[in-house]
What we know:
Layout: E1 7-12, E2 15-24, E3 27-36, H1 54-61
Antiparallel strand pairs: 1-2, 2-3
Amino acid sequence: MIEAKWETVDVSPGLVSKSVSVSLFDSPQHIVLLEIDTAYYRLAFIQHEKREKVAQLVKSSGGIAGVNGGFFKTRTPN
């Protein structure tokens, strides 16, 4: 397990952002975690057929946050 200090920001009622920078897979990583209180917000999953920036998908759907889950590189080049 990696020990790391998380930075916590209260974004708005019911929404907390936590972030940390660590080294994983021999590569620097920046991880952001959103804690969402569903009493304040409704969660929805959106998939788009063409490549579009997450910020644009969030804006066009009326959302407040978005997570890109399309690609993760877990190995470094030899």
